[in-house]
Amino acid sequence: ILMGFSNLEKIVAQITADRMMLKMPVALISNGTLPTQKVVTGTLANIVARVKASGMKAPAIIVIGKVVALRDQLNWFTPPLLLQGKRILVTRPEHQASELVGILEGHGARVTSIPLIRIVPSKNTAQIKARLSALDQFNWLIFTSVNGVDLFLKAVAKHKISIASLKNKKFAAIGKKTAEHLEQAGIKVDLVPKDFVQEALAATMIKTIAKESKGVLLAHSAGSRPVLEQKLRAAGLKIETLDLYSAEPIKENHARVHTMFAKRQVDAVMLTSSSCAESFLSVFKKAQLKAQTKGVVVASIGPITSDTARRAGLPVAVEADVYTIEGITAALIEYYQGQKRVQA
């Protein structure tokens, strides 16, 4: 299909009206035969998500059918793929994994996605209702994750609070993606720290916000690190918390991960949060951790996640400088190119 890139979702929807077509192979090719050639493959069930995750832009050719399976045999031109053939395990929650999977596959990796945590919305509806009813008490709202933003937006919609009514608030976010989710909802973000960790946001806010600030609402996950709350409170700021969700381990997936490591089927594992790291660590008996993960490159999204792994005795070989999925991918590529290694 030529000139169909902008209508990809509609094309897929029309074809998959016949549910038997969901497993049909698909490939999109942009900049064919150029050094910037990019190919994204998948099935009609997942190709839209994979294309979005890859960052591919128009124009692109769409190929649908079993002929896509011949790509490896007929492939006469492909730019160098920096993670070609590397077997990489992604442990992110299922609803967030596709973007990282797409990026890694775009670099030639063979990716297995086994979510080791799930995001569980808070059942404390009384606290949520109380905090939202008292929004007039706060002039700053802080978000530490994309998940927190998404659940906050659902909560304000449920309680019929308009986004327009929040225009007089100031918003702070940890991480570029967190800020983007707020902005996509029409909310202006006033503060994003250079380093995407609680310590950096606390330091910046203490310098920025006067102690006579009306109040600060910290929207985060239950059981998250208390660093930000403690530092702001110690600085004299009036702060309340809103627990929107918890990150719970998916223990039923532990056996699959254990089997992959026992069979030496993993070259690298991506740990994109401390919660993912904790769940991954619980896959193995403590005495066997180093032996069973020997030879596997452990990649961490940042220093907090790295500390979680190292405290349990798991060596970390790769740590992102920029604490994003793009950053952890870049750090892994640098590792395999021999350019950068961190102290395990």
Number of strands: 13
Order of helices and strands: HEEHEHEHEEHEHEHHEHEHEHHEHEH
Shape: globular
The strand order across the widest sheet is 5-4-11-12-13
Oligomer: single chain
Class computed from helices, strands and strand pairing: alpha/beta
Helix count from the secondary structure assignment:
14
The major β-sheet equals: 5 strands, parallel
Distance between the termini: 49 Å
The percent of residues in helical segments reads: 25-40%
Query: What is the average of the pLDDT values?
Result: 92
Rg from alpha-carbon coordinates: 22 Å
Name the beta content range. Answer: 15-25%
Would you identify the regions where 5 or more consecutive residues have pLDDT less than 50? Answer: none
Describe the 3D structure.
The chain is an alpha/beta fold and 344 residues long. It is built from 14 helices and 13 strands. It has helices at 8-15, 47-54, 71-74, 94-106, 125-133, 146-158, 176-184, 198-208, 227-234, 254-262, 274-281, 289-292, 303-311, 325-336; strands at residues 25-30, 38-43, 61-64, 87-90, 110-113, 117-121, 140-143, 170-173, 216-221, 239-249, 268-271, 297-300, 318-319. The strands form 3 sheets. A 5-stranded parallel β-sheet has the order 5-4-11-12-13. Strand 1 and strand 2 form a beta hairpin. Helix 2 (47-54) crosses helix 4 (94-106). The longest helix has 13 residues, at 94-106.
